[in-house]
Structure formats: structure tokens, C-alpha cells
Design brief:
The structure holds 2 protein chains of 2 kinds.
Chain A lengths: L3 E10 L2 E11 L4 E5 L6 H8 L7 E6 L2 E4 L2 E2 L1 H7 E4 L11 H13 L3 H14 L15 H13 L5 E5 L7 H16 L3 E5 L3 H7 L2 E6 L2 E7 H6 L4 H11 L1
Chain B lengths: L6 H38 L2 H15 L3 H14 L6 H26 L3 H9 L4 H31 L11 H12 L2 H28 L8
Helix pairs in contact in B: 1-2, 1-4, 1-7, 1-8, 2-4, 3-4, 4-6, 5-6, 6-8, 7-8
The chains are: A alpha/beta, B mainly alpha.
Keywords (chain A): Amino-acid transport, ATP-binding, Cell membrane, Membrane, Nucleotide-binding, Transport
GO cellular component, one term (chain A): plasma membrane
Family (chain A): Belongs to the ABC transporter superfamily.
């Protein structure tokens, strides 16, 4: 059974059709990169997966929890799906430790001690165990993004979504975040990442999906897809990154 | 009998100031309570409720406070509800405070970026939990400056209830002036007492506005 099942989803913004029948199955421990031009629907698709955007048709299923056009069991699904945003979105009034322990405590009812133990563990994984008392504004962008990853991990999700997580970072800071993601991938996390980092998609993702005009235009094992694009749209899109 | 302005007169004014403070505090607590509910409903309630509250806020903000006071005191007695000046003063000031604070606090809630809601959403927090742990603590922090600033307005505006005979600081000044015929002594003292109450609040308000990194204690 796939970890994440997306079936024929459609999404409109007003009269504009942004997702035109997208279907994807993502296997446990699979890492899937989603690439495409701005406006191709890739970020919108990601946001639909955990219900930040409503879909107008189709079905999304994670660990037996389904959402469709009528909504669905959104909270149960979100407990299984972590999301990391382009702009980090840490809670600025809370310390790193409080950011990471908040959801386990209030959503899962984990007691303080256990939540802190989980937090120590995930912060160590992203290499920021020593920053647990800091506030977001005392951290670099790269560190903030790693805390955001830790915050998601603390909910022990089955699937992690990454929405252009390095796009807001200075180039010299993208490396540390990509490394953290690569380690997660190696540890067997199921991941869907919308990215502009073609090199990263090619090396780390098992499969790459190219979206165009609200559709899955082309997909395949990353190495193959980049080496041998079948459609002219994909060829045009990746040409600059191959130079 | 004409008395001259002396220490006894100052004591009389200070007693009046006590009523001003009490009325201000009462107004702030009661008005603040309703303002919080209104601010939340104004931002997050169903559409008809949002519109109704917006209408209430517009209406009150467009009405001179004195008219609200007169309505509460004379208007309601006309329909058979006789409020003593103390109650009429409290009710009208509370209505006025509710409208203004609700609007200030709505602005503070709306100032929290949408992404904060989304991040909390993505972590599976319920709406109430998002408010309780993520939005309100941040909104509270930015509301401190304007809220304390508005307290100054409350203190000064309690003076209008002198016109329905409630003996607070301004009314005490009027009475004293009638007894002493020394308007400069009397009203300068009255002004000095208002200043002594309001200046620390203004000062605190500015400090709170400037201190962006002030974090609420956890």
C-alpha cells in the first residue's frame, strides 16, 4: 500500500484551474522531487496534500485517513503528514525547545518530559541540540529551517512535505538544510519535496515528477528523467541546469 | 460660604481622583472583557456575526462619548430604566471602551502573518489551540503598547460623566470652584492630577511599543 495516495485531484483558484487531475502514489521510504515552473501547480499540490488548500475533486489518502472535496478527517491526516515551509514559519514567541514540543504536547497529549526527550532527539538529528533555548530571531535562516524540520519530525509523521525549503535561504546556507534532508532520506523517511535544486533532486530523490500546466507532465526515476527527458517541455525546463 | 483653596481642597480633589481611577479601572476590566470576545468574533466568527460587530464598532466610534453617556442616563430613564449616575457612567464608558479596544485588538490579531496559522494548522493543532498557543500570545505582545495608550484615553474621558453629576475628579473640581472661586488654583490642580495619572501610562505605552523584542513571560 502506498504511503501517500493522490487520485485525480482538481483545484481551482476562482475560475483558474491550477491542478487538473493530478494522481500520484508514493511508496513508503520513497523520496519524490516535484519540479516545474512557477505556476505549474507544484506547491499547490503539496499544500492540498495536508489540506492547507481545499480540493474540488479527487481524493487524498495517508495512513487510512482520507480527504476529498467535502473535507475529511483533516486533523488525523495532519498528524501523519509533516510540512516544512519556504519561510520556516517558526513561532517567534517560543524558544526552539517550545517550538518543537508544542504539537506533541497539545496535539498528542505527550507529557512534558517525554516531549522534551523527543525534542532533544530530533534537534540532535538536525544538528541543533545546543540551540534549544534560543529564539528564532537569534538563529540564521538555515538554522531556523532545520528547527522547522525538527518541529515536524517531533510529530513522528509518516510522510514529510517540503515546500521549496531552500528558496528563501542565502546560497551558502542551503547546504546545511539539504544535508539534513539527505540524512532524513537515508533514514527511510517518505518525502515529497517541491524544489528548484535540480542537482539535489537528481542525486537524492528516487523519483522526480515534472509538473506542467497543472498536470503531472512527465515522471520517472530521477537519474533517468534528467538524463533522458521525453517531452520538449521538460527538456526546455532542465536545459539551463545542465549547462 | 466662600472657602479659600488649601490643603483640604487638594484632599477633596484627590478623593475625586480616586473615583476617576475606580471608574477607569472598572471600565477597562468590563470593556476589556467584552472587547476580547468581540475582537475574536470580529476576526473569526461567522460572517453575520462579524458584520454585526463591525457595525456596532462603527456606530459607537462615530458617536460622541457624551451622547452615549446621555443616552445611558437620560435616554434609558425615559424608557423606565433608572440608572444611578455611577451605573450609567460605568455602562456608557464600558460600551465605548469595548468598541475601541475590540478594534485595536482585532488589528493585533490580524497583524499575525497567515503563515503562523498555517504552520500551526500543519502541526494538527485545532483552531482553539492555534489561537491559544500561537496567535494570541503574539497578538498580546503587540497589543500592549496601544492598549496601555488607550488607558490614557479612558482616564481622560471619564471626565465627561461629570455632566451627569457623578463626582469624579472633574466634577470635584467644578464643585470646588463653586466654593472657592479660584478657578486657576482648582483646575490647574485637577490638570496636574490627570497628568500624574496619565503620564506614567503614556510613558509605559511608548516603552512597550518600542520594545519589539519584549516577550511575554511563560
Amino acid at each position: 500500500m502506498p504511503a501517500l495516495h493522490i487520485s485525480e485531484i482538481k483545484k481551482y483558484f476562482g475560475a483558474l484551474l491550477v491542478l487538473d487531475g493530478v494522481s500520484l502514489d508514493i511508496e513508503p521510504s520513497e523520496v519524490v522531487a516535484v519540479i516545474g515552473r512557477s505556476g505549474s501547480g507544484k506547491s499547490t499540490m503539496l499544500r492540498c496534500i495536508n489540506g492547507l488548500e481545499k480540493i474540488q475533486a479527487g481524493l487524498i489518502e495517508v495512513a487510512g485517513h482520507r480527504i476529498g472535496p467535502q473535507g475529511g478527517d483533516l486533523r488525523s491526516l495532519r498528524k501523519e503528514v509533516g510540512m516544512v515551509f519556504q519561510s520556516y514559519n517558526l513561532f517567534p514567541h517560543l524558544t526552539v525547545m517550545e517550538n518543537v514540543t508544542l504539537a506533541p504536547k497539545v496535539v498528542k497529549g505527550v507529557d512534558r518530559k517525554e516531549a522534551e526527550a523527543i525534542a532533544h532527539d530530533v534537534l540532535r538529528r538536525v544538528g541543533l541540540a545546543e540551540k534549544s533555548g534560543a529564539y528564532a530571531d537569534e538563529l540564521s535562516g538555515g538554522q531556523q529551517q532545520r528547527v522547522a524540520i525538527a518541529r515536524s519530525l517531533a510529530m513522528q509523521p509518516k510522510v514529510m512535505l517540503f515546500d521549496e525549503v531552500t528558496s528563501a535561504l542565502d546560497p551558502e546556507l542551503t547546504g546545511e538544510v539539504l544535508k539534513t534532508m539527505e540524512e532524513l532520506a537515508d533514514a527511510g523517511m517518505t518525502m515529497v519535496l517541491v524544489t528548484h535544486e535540480m542537482g539535489f533532486a537528481r542525486q537524492v530523490a528516487d523519483r522526480t515528477v515534472f509538473m506542467h500546466k497543472g498536470k503531472v507532465w512527465e515522471q520517472g526515476p530521477s537519474e533517468e528523467l534528467f538524463a533522458n527527458p521525453q517531452t520538449p517541455e521538460l527538456r526546455n525546463f532542465i536545459a539551463p541546469s545542465l549547462k | 460660604m466662600i472657602r479659600s483653596f488649601g490643603w483640604e481642597s487638594v484632599e477633596f480633589l484627590i478623593r475625586g481622583a480616586g473615583w476617576t481611577l475606580l471608574l477607569s479601572l472598572m471600565t477597562f476590566v468590563i470593556g476589556g472583557f467584552f472587547a476580547l470576545i468581540f475582537a475574536l468574533l470580529r476576526t473569526l466568527g461567522p460572517r453575520p456575526v462579524r458584520l454585526a460587530i463591525a457595525g456596532f464598532i462603527q456606530l459607537v466610534q462615530a458617536t460622541p462619548l457624551l451622547i452615549i453617556v446621555f443616552l445611558a442616563f437620560y435616554g434609558l430613564s425615559f424608557v423606565g430604566l433608572h440608572f444611578p449616575p455611577m451605573v450609567a457612567a460605568g455602562v456608557s464608558l464600558a460600551v465605548y471602551t469595548t468598541a475601541f479596544l475590540a478594534d485595536i485588538w482585532r488589528g493585533c490579531i490580524e497583524a499575525i502573518p497567515k503563515q503562523q496559522w498555517e504552520a500551526a494548522d500543519a502541526l494538527a493543532l485545532t483552531r482553539t489551540q492555534q489561537l491559544r498557543y500561537v496567535i494570541l500570545p503574539q497578538a498580546f505582545k503587540i497589543s500592549l503598547g496601544p492598549t496601555v495608550g488607550f488607558m490614557v484615553q479612558i482616564v481622560k474621558n471619564t471626565s465627561v460623566v461629570a455632566l451627569i453629576g457623578f463626582v469624579e475628579l472633574t466634577r470635584a473640581g467644578q464643585l470646588l470652584n463653586n466654593m472657592t472661586f479660584q478657578p486657576f488654583h482648582v483646575f490647574l490642580t485637577v490638570a496636574a492630577i490627570y497628568f500624574a495619572i496619565c503620564y506614567p501610562l503614556s510613558f509605559l505605552s511608548e516603552r512597550l511599543k518600542g520594545n519589539r523584542h519584549a516577550r511575554p513571560a511563560h
